[in-house]
Amino acid sequence: MGKSKKKFPYDVRKKAFLWSARYCCLCSKQSGLDIELHHIDPTLDLPHLNDIDNAIPVCYECHSKLEFSLLNSPRGSKYSPQEIKDRRNQIYEEKTRHLVPVIIYGPTNNYDFPKVQFYIQNNDGALNVRARCKVEIYVNHKLFGTPTRHYSGDHPWVCNPGLAAFGWFDLSNPAKLEKRPKYRGVPPDKASGKDLRLRVHLTIIDVFEREHERIPVEWYFSWKEQEWVYDP
Predict the structure, then answer these.
(1) What is the dotted CATH code of the domain comprising 100-231?
(2) What are the structural domain ranges in the chain?
(3) Burial code of 15-53, b = ≥16 C-beta within 10 A, e = fewer?
(4) Of 22, 123, 165, 230, which has the fewest beta carbons less than 10 angstroms from its beta carbon?
C-alpha cells in the first residue's frame, strides 16, 4: 500500500491531537510538536485504515516501540490492539472530561399517561455541548422499541449553557414509535399493571466532537401513583 494511502486525513489528525492535548497516549508525556499518529491495525482496508478509531497519538519513542512490536519479535510483552485503544481512550477521557458539563435529563410527570414529557438541561454556565438521547421502551423486561427522532439517538439535542430543552412523545401513537419486529407483547399504552419502563442512553458530544457515553439509567411507571419513578 502506498504511503499516501496510510496517511490520516486532516480532520482525524486534528481531533486526535485535541482529544489527547498532544500527550502521548502510551507514556503520558506531553509531546507538543514531537507527536505522531500510529495506525493501531495497519492491515485494515480503506477507509477503515485511516478512521480515528484506528489512530493513537504517540511520542517518537513510543511510536518506534509500537512499530517494532509489529515485526513479531519474540521479545517483550506486546500490546494488543484493544489494549492500545483502551489506553488511548483513558488519556482522551483525562484530557476532555473538563469539557463535559453536568447534564440532567429524564421524563417528567407533567403530562398524563400515555404522553411522556422529556427534558435535557445543561447546568453549566459556559460549556456548549450536544447530546444524543436514545429512549428504549420495555414492557415486562422485553424491549418494545424506541420513540422516533430526538428519542432514537439519531437527532442530537443542542444543550446551551444554563438552558433546558423540553419535548414529548406519545406511547399510544404507533406512527411515532419504532417497534422492534421481533416484539410480540402488548403495546406500552396497553400495559396497565405490567412492568413498564424507559431506559435512557445519553451520549454527550463536547466542543471538540468527542463523544462521552453515560451509564444507561431507567425510570419505571408506577400505575398506582400514575408517575414515572427513577430506578437506581
Answers:
(1) 2.60.40
(2) 3-98, 100-231
(3) bbbbbbebbbbbeebebeeebbbbbbeeeeeeeebbebe
(4) 230
